[in-house]
Task: inverse folding
């Protein structure tokens, strides 16, 4: 079922990552590897540095020390223009809430990344409609985010993260604001779609029931990652 | 964990119509896919007790091309007993008797390494949760499978949350047990 490629090197790797916010060190030498097609859960208590790790790995912030390598490119050596391009074409991001643009319909929200990448409006909207269909929210395509339920908005956000065919999706507590059934629909949609498309997912969560959708789990403790022991 | 009542589960399965022992076992295992499968001997003994207590009766025999089998059906008393049991609240975990809890305390008492044990136990719990999640999110999973996987997942999650809190408390806890 899993499409993890165990033979090749990691698609995305962070090594010795250190990042401080003011005087607080959020990451203290964290290292993590994500293989192509792998769904990896990063767990840990609040304040353990999970979101900071995601921001470093997705090139949103630069670590103070350490390096992030994506498909052979070291992110810290890339000019901002190339980083932006990567974030647009190769990376998709889903947060807990709030990433949809409130003034646009769900359909236009999903079409937007394609239009930013140069697609025409009609083609982008047609593709966006197909993605909304896959996530069971095509009927809500003409509604604005404020008119969607939390679960519908989150499924539209997933469609937006996946519409460009990214190789990695970064999901930061994607079900954190949802009740358990809505959360389950979002996770099932994310996992099925990622597996079909061979998309790798870095899933940040504090909820073991969400982490259980992943192939593997690593735990952040005090800003460093501990792979979990294999059960005897 | 509160012991499940095989009597009441069989009465529940008989509520949809007369059935024989083998069929009851098969339907039990389908309806409760994550439960321990019923032994045929247990089904047979329980049916005899239900008959003895007037909650079920022999309905006839059914050969269906194979060997002859006795079919059973629930009596009116059986239906009333099932309704009574199904509406009765279960005691909300009056005693804590859990192997994980016992091991952690024993490990603290004996100067062992409870933190290492908790990490290994967490990995085993997560592995089981991944299996259950795959089972319930597979396309075409039926309701019985989803319900039973949900039940198991939520209980494993409760264990995990207790283990996480305990790992965080361990230093304090150890000090308290030491001075007791």
Result:
């Amino acid at each position: 079922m899993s499409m993890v490629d165990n033979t090749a090197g990691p698609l995305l790797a962070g090594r010795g990552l250190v990042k401080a916010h003011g005087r607080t060190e959020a990451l203290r030498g964290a290292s993590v590897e994500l293989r192509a097609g792998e769904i990896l859960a990063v767990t840990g208590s609040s304040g353990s540095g999970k979101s900071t790790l995601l921001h470093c790995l997705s090139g949103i912030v630069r670590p103070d020390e350490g390096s992030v390598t994506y498909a052979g490119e070291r992110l810290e050596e890339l000019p901002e223009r190339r980083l932006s391009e990567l974030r647009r074409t190769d990376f998709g991001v889903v947060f807990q809430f709030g990433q949809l643009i409130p003034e646009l319909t769900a359909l236009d929200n999903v079409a937007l990344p394609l239009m930013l990448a140069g697609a025409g409006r009609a083609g982008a909207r047609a593709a966006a409609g197909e993605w909304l269909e896959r996530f069971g929210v095509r009927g809500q395509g003409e509604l604005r985010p404020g008119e969607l339920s939390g679960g519908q908005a989150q499924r539209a956000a997933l469609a937006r993260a996946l519409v460009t065919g990214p190789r990695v999706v970064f999901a930061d507590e994607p079900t954190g604001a949802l009740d358990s059934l809505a959360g389950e629909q979002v996770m099932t949609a994310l996992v099925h779609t990622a597996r079909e498309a061979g998309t790798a997912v870095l899933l940040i969560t504090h909820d073991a029931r969400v982490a259980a959708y992943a192939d593997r789990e690593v735990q952040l403790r005090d800003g460093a990652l501990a792979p979990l022991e294999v059960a005897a | 964990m509160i012991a499940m009542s095989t009597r009441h589960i069989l009465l529940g399965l008989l509520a949809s119509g007369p059935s024989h022992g083998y069929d009851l076992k098969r339907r039990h295992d389908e309806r409760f896919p994550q439960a321990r499968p019923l032994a045929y001997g247990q089904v047979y003994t329980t049916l005899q007790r239900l008959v003895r207590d007037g909650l079920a009766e022999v309905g006839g025999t059914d050969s269906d091309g194979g060997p002859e089998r006795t079919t059973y059906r629930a009596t009116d008393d059986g239906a009333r007993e099932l309704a009574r049991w199904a509406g009765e609240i279960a005691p909300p975990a009056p005693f804590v008797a859990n192997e994980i809890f016992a091991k952690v305390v024993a490990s603290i008492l004996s100067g062992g390494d409870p933190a290492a044990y908790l990490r290994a136990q967490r990995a085993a719990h997560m592995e089981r949760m991944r299996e259950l999640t795959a089972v319930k999110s597979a396309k075409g999973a039926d309701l019985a499978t989803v319900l039973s996987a949900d039940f198991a997942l939520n209980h494993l999650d409760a264990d995990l949350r207790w283990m996480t809190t305990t790992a965080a408390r361990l230093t304090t806890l150890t000090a308290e047990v030491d001075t007791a």
Summary: Helices of chain B lie at 6-14, 21-31, 40-52, 76-87, 99-109, 114-137, 143-179. Residues 29 and 82 of chain B are 19 Å apart (CA to CA). Chain B has a mean pLDDT of 85.
